[in-house]
Here is the input.
Amino acid sequence: MPVSLDLPSRLLSSDLCQLLEAYLEPEQVKAVYRAYLFSAEAHDGQQRLSGEPYIFHPLAVAYILGQMRMDSQTLCAALLHDVIEDTGIAKKQLINEFGEKIAELVDGVSKLSSIQFETREQAQAASFQKMLLAMNQDIRVIIIKLADRLHNMYTLGVMKPTSRRRIAHETLEIYAPIASRLGMNAVRLKLEELSFAILYPFRYQVLKDRLQKARNKRLDILRSIQSTFEQHLHKHHLNAQVVNREKHYYGLYYKMLEYKSATSLDKRKSFARATNMCAFRIIVDTVDACYRALGVVHSLYKPLCERFRDYIAIPKINGYQSLHTILFSPHGFLIEVQIRTADMHELSEIGITAYGFYQLDQPSVGLPKPTSQLAHQRATEWLQSLIEMSKNAGDSVEFFNQVKMDLFPDEVYVFTPKGKILQLPKGATAIDFAYAIHSDVGNRCIAAKIDNQYVSLSVPLVSGQTVEVITTPWARPHRSWLNFAVSARARSHIRHFLKVLEHDEAISLGKRLLDKELASYALSIDHLTAEQQSQLLKNLKVDSLDKLLAEIGLGNRMALVVASQLNLTLESSFKTPSPINGNQYRPLIIRGGAGILVTLSRCCRPIPGDEIVGFMSAGRGLIIHQVICKHVAEYQYHYPDKILSVEWESNLEEDEFLVDIHVDVLDKKGVLATVSAAIANMGSNIKYVANETDEGVSSLLKFCISVRSRDHLAAIIRHLRRLEVVNRIQRSKN
Here is the structure.
């Protein structure tokens, strides 16, 4: 049966007790009433913005949860959920009065009010992270929070317009998707409708009026279709309940926006298309009856094959199960039909709250139904993914943004080579698939096969495809993967890996830079005693040597300044160590282009054989330029202390470097293929090509190619000059 989440016009504690007596034991009802009395006393004298006593809010939250038939512990926590945050009562007192379980639930819902944050976003993100991590211990935390948010949405009218819009937007962005992820469809729909009415009141009212008019026009036709379904289902001995369900305003509005953006329809046409459909739900007794009922409706009206979805065989990510089909009607509109069992329908309405696991203190509860077990399993998997995201995120704001991205998962269903089905967000690529299998598979991924054909890692996946990931031990994630990785899990692991790698490379680069500067004082970081290191860190106010070296490597501290400080520290406190061997002014060695914090500039693209210079960029590390690059003169004038002497490592023949060349050619058929083939024959790979054609007989081909050295580039240029179609060729310097 559908769950009603409406509230009485004047809610009293007796209304709550009457609701609870229908499914809880008398002792449990008494415990809930005791929590009500405690909360009423704690909030005595407090009022909401509406002017009503504050206790009406926790009472309403408990009533909403009672409509979901939640257990007594959850109801007690709902009544007490603002006690820690808004009164002087401590968590320890709640433990003494109501036990640790209820106190933990209340604490999980409470905001982080004792910590000061610079921005509202940081405070919101930190409280959200605290709540979601508490959710991992007990998922009832988020169920209470959703009921809390729902009642707040009911009573937003007394707030300022800016506050109303902010809270409504936050509800649509976070809380409604969380309710959807937990299968709590009734809560989601209420949150969406209330938010839509607040954010776009005029659109909401116009859509409501027009939808009601359209529905009234079709009323007789809808009754006829419903009667036809009922008669034929009964004829095939199927015990079925047929319901003509109304489309929800926000869902309809969202579809109108999709149609408009996808097809450039105007508002009137997008409304007509979105409403050119009526919806029915058929509820039967068994899974077998679902498929039999599907056969019946398909025999009555022609199905739209590409819109059929079997969510019974392949449930949605929140455990939702149903058969969805679209039928052509003889009346000029489409018929959307959902077919499910009663258990599936209950799960679709209240989701995770249908699981008897929460009624731990109710002895009459037996084993949970299979559909509820599936919902609980999916919710548990999601919670585990949140823990992984939290560990990999740099701070609460980053975690908050990753969770928001993970809450909009229009699914794609793909297969592993062994036939296992994986659910991924819409637009997911092979990278998302690899990380869905395991983080190690994602970190070592180098290629992918889709339906036994090699494809780029950035190709979006389509439902029904079989995906195979190719890995190697030496592979590692690349920063460019963040441009096409869609799932929060993949993006979280990629960011975490790059962050660790960047930190390690920053320490390594920082040590090389500091040793280079210390050489002028006949010092080396490796020759310092623990006492000398400690004194240096104390003077510089840094926690550890690794942190100091990382800051130097990232360009946030100048190695020259640190070396000078160290020399002064040693002169004042210690004996200067013996000079070390080696050239004090030897340039820093550049070992190829690989690395996060040693970057070859894209403006001049230096390659081995070019005379080069380094520039320390704050936060980015060491940027390598050609000496003749136009930017170097600017850096030498404005930032002379950030210019470093560098040189290439002697043996870099195994590495490849990118370089730009401009080839002026005759504008003839097949000229691009001729030049490209010549470049490939010289052992070079083309990364990018562009063509500029003037009104004359020539064209300018701009290539970005890979070379091993300056000599390799010279050989390629000589080879291209021999081609008849080539007029001129030169390397692009900037």
The two ends are 70 Å apart (CA to CA). The chain is about 50% helix and 15% strand. The chain has five domains: 13-199, 202-354, 496-586, 589-648, 657-731.
